[in-house]
Amino acid sequence: MLSKDDKTRIIKDNQSHPTDSGSPEIQVAILTERINLLVKHFSGHKKDFGSRSGLMKMVGQRKRLLEYIKKNDVGRYEKLIQKLGLRK
User: Do residues 42 and 52 touch, judged by C-beta distance below 8 A?
Assistant: First the structure.
């Protein structure tokens, strides 16, 4: 679970303008952080299948958001991918 401080830090790092709090880039960044936390969790809890299904839902949501960004602006997509360290 992300703390409020972590979430505000992620939002500030990915804002496109000062009042931006829910753009697709921010949503992808928050999902990526939550996914990374769950991946660490699974290294010690291999049989936690309930959380694993939640992880799969988050991965799917992030994939849909990334496809939306890519469809609308490839430059924003590539910048975000590079910033978050996703893919190549």
Answer: yes
Please state, rounded to an integer, the average pLDDT across all residues of the chain.
Answer: 95
Distance CA 17, CA 85 (A): 22
- The answer, as to whether pTM is greater than 0.85, is yes
Give residue 24's Cα distance to chain centre.
9
Residues 49, 23: Cα–Cα separation, whole Å: 31
Q: How many domains does the chain have?
A: 1
CA angle 25, 57, 62 (to 5 degrees): 15
Give mean pLDDT, residues 29-35: 97
The enclosing domain of 21 has a CATH number of 1.10.287.10
